[in-house]
Design brief:
single chain, alpha+beta, 8 strands
């Protein structure tokens, strides 16, 4: 998206009829597990492999004439992730940011929803039966929040994947702001943090 700028939610919702709105959500849950019996997993964070081979967050376009942002997002989540999503709802309290780009005229709204590990696992198990599985969504993946002893394995290697739009920056920003890793660990590992918040593009942005 060219000419991306950050907006307050009220300003974003007041944009004219020529603008399209998209909503995406990061789903995460506390995870007490240990990799190899010694490396804390801390949290399970979901992303998805998209139809174009890039990583992104579930969600898509919403029509404000017919629904609210959150109602539209929850509908998109059911289509992409399956009926297990009906066990919870992404609410306005989960909202994080809005960014607009002038070419095309799209405003992207980003959310982060904390689940229980049981809820998150249910989403993973039910996703292969979702309407969009195998089409717009090729599968879910957990983000490794740890860094292995070689300094490369884990999160640093994961960040070398191809991400749609600014999904990589949104991921890092959420990891830092929600304290999903130990304080200072990103900078200690020389992982570049985003300088500004920008939107990520969902599967329906590239039809």
């Amino acid at each position: 998206m060219a000419g991306v700028r950050r907006l307050a939610l009220e300003e974003a919702l007041a944009l004219g009829p020529g603008w399209r709105h998209a909503c995406h959500a990061l789903l995460y849950a506390p995870d007490p597990g240990l990799l190899f019996g010694r490396i804390p997993l801390r949290y399970a964070v979901l992303m998805q492999m998209r139809f174009d081979g890039r990583l992104g967050f579930p969600g898509g376009f919403v029509n404000l004439k017919d629904t609210s942002l959150e109602a539209g997002l929850n509908r998109e989540l059911i289509e992409e992730l399956g009926e297990a999503v009906a066990d919870f709802r992404v609410e306005r309290a989960d909202y994080r940011s809005s960014h607009a780009g002038s070419a095309p005229q799209v405003v992207a709204h980003f959310y982060a929803k904390r689940l229980t590990l049981q809820q998150l696992v249910a989403v993973e198990m039910g996703a292969p039966r979702a309407k969009d599985h195998g089409l717009e969504v090729l599968g879910l993946v957990r983000v490794p929040l740890y860094t292995l002893r070689d300094g490369v394995g884990g999160l640093p290697a994961f960040l070398e994947n191809s991400f749609i739009g600014t999904a990589r920056e949104q991921l890092l920003e959420a990891i830092q702001d929600l304290e999903l890793v130990e304080s200072g660990s990103l900078t200690a590992r020389k992982i570049s943090l985003p300088r500004q918040r920008q939107p990520s593009m969902g599967p329906r942005h590239l039809r």
